[in-house]
Amino acid sequence: MARPKVFVSNAEVPEPGLALLRQECEVVEVPSNNPSYDTILQHMPSSGVDAIFWCSKYKLDAAVVDAAGPALRAVASMSAGYDHIDAHLLKRRGIPFGNTANVLNDAVAETAVALVLTVSRRLQEGRRALERGLWETGRPQFMLGLDVAGSTVGVVGLGGIGQAFAKRIKAFNIGKLLYSGHKPKPEASALGAEFVSFDELVRKSDIIVMACPLTAETKNLFNAQVFDEMKSTSILINVGRGGCIDQEALVDALKTKKIWGAGLDVMVPEPIPVDHPLVSLDNCVLFPHVGSATVGTRAAMAVLAAKNILCALKGQPMPSPV
Ligand SMILES: O=C(O)C(=O)CO
């Protein structure tokens, strides 16, 4: 019997995932580690494929699904977020779709902690000052930051990543842990986290960490009105999706010191142009979307995406279905 054909949209997918697929399938890889959308489409076999392993910043849309042909029986994205996948289309066509939720929780939570510390203790600004010969050793008020200890931390979206972050930040002896979302989460009580409305979280938090997906509801969730409500000493961290923040409003809030600082692992667009105002602001720390970028986590994501495909091809439930 012919082995099922799996189309892999990137040549840099970690080997453990590819090895798993190759045990049972024929794997067709796009021969580039950063292919354009058109290049991906061009490499889709004209005879069609049984599954798509999507590892790309581009949208998996109707054109990709159509190019895959009528045999398509599984789609897996090597990501937790899937705002770049037309999941509604896949559902309408009855094609099982999975993501790589949870295996990246620890890595993304570590990134969020790194951003909290970098912003609150002005580590980037201090480093820039050192490079420019502006380190003033005699001054007792040189480069003062804000305490994480004793602070009120608010998590927007207490899902897997939000919970992993909450566990870690508690070790910094914070004062209070708040969270907002659709409804209270059963896991919150073990974390000592208090469910509050979004408005209350925004008004009361010293540190806000966004760990929510990009949806119609969360698009521009943090906008000019919300920045007006935040404390002038507050910090906004985003490890979810850039589109959840109105970036122009953020630039204004940071420049006018409506808020103390921001730390973003995600932004719009990615990569952000180097002359974008956020890049030069001392009270804004930007990471190049490295939340899940560890050797172990990316391998685990590749393996989970492969398992999603292998299970669906056998007619079994995916381990991480959307
Ligand atoms: O997997 C995702 O969706 C990520 O953005 C990881 O950082």
Automatic annotation (TrEMBL):
Domain D-isomer specific 2-hydroxyacid dehydrogenase NAD-binding, first and last residues per copy:
113-291
Which SUPFAM superfamilies does the record associate with it?
Formate/glycerate dehydrogenase catalytic domain-like, NAD(P)-binding Rossmann-fold domains
Keywords attached to this Swiss-Prot or TrEMBL record, sorted alphabetically, are: Oxidoreductase
Q: Which residues form the D-isomer specific 2-hydroxyacid dehydrogenase catalytic domain?
A: 12-322
Top-level taxon in the UniProt lineage: Eukaryota
Pfam family of the protein (one): 2-Hacid_dh_C
The record's GO molecular-function terms, alphabetically, read: glyoxylate reductase (NADPH) activity; hydroxypyruvate reductase (NADH) activity; NAD binding
One GO CC term of this entry?
cytosol
Q: Per its UniProt record, what Gene3D superfamilies does this chain match?
A: NAD(P)-binding Rossmann-like Domain
The similarity comment for this entry is: Belongs to the D-isomer specific 2-hydroxyacid dehydrogenase family.
Protein name as annotated: Glyoxylate reductase/hydroxypyruvate reductase
Q: What is the lineage of its organism?
A: Eukaryota, Metazoa, Ecdysozoa, Arthropoda, Hexapoda
